[in-house]
Inverse folding.
């Protein structure tokens, strides 16, 4: 008669040494948890307050247009007196960008700036509105909510990893005590 032997399952997956260190060592697990929580809080705090404000709270500026600079992830509205203001890149459309690029130097502009985020939230000339006050604030806030969710997830993940680390260490110690007896 043939004897049945158990076939050992071998996994092609080899855990990453960093993952193993973080999950097997309580200090490493707690350190990782604290780091994730700190980064999540920092992420949320650095974004600032982008909630829409009433028109009366916005900072008004009036000046002569010099140029509109388009960078990779930033937009600058520059005036002839040397002042420049940030335009949030996700509030502009292609039509807005073309209009800003075609404005003549010296054109009189009236702008409103968000008091907490320092982004331009309205741009007007003598004859037309180039950026709408309400619409731009909604677009800025809507975009920033995504980043706040990411920061919140990092905090949640840090708390979860911290509790998991403590729980697994307690379970491991209980298992060691059982095996000793």
């Amino acid at each position: 008669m043939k004897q049945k032997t158990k076939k050992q399952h071998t996994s092609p997956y080899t855990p990453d040494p960093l993952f193993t260190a973080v999950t097997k060592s309580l200090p490493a697990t707690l350190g990782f948890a604290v780091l994730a929580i700190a980064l999540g809080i920092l992420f949320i705090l650095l974004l600032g307050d982008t909630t829409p404000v009433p028109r009366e709270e916005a900072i008004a500026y009036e000046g002569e247009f010099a140029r509109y600079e388009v960078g990779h992830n930033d937009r600058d509205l520059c005036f002839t007196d040397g002042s420049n203001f940030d335009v949030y890149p996700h509030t502009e459309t292609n039509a807005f960008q073309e209009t800003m690029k075609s404005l003549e130097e010296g054109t009189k502009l009236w702008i409103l700036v968000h008091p907490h985020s320092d982004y331009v939230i309205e741009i007007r000339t003598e004859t037309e509105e180039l950026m709408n006050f309400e619409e731009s604030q909604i677009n800025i806030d809507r975009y920033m909510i995504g980043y706040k969710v990411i920061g919140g997830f990092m905090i949640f993940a840090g708390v979860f990893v911290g509790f998991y680390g403590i729980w697994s260490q307690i379970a491991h110690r209980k298992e060691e005590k059982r095996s000793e007896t």
Q: What stands out?
A: The radius of gyration is 28 Å. The chain has a mean pLDDT of 85. The first strand starts at residue 59 and ends at 70.
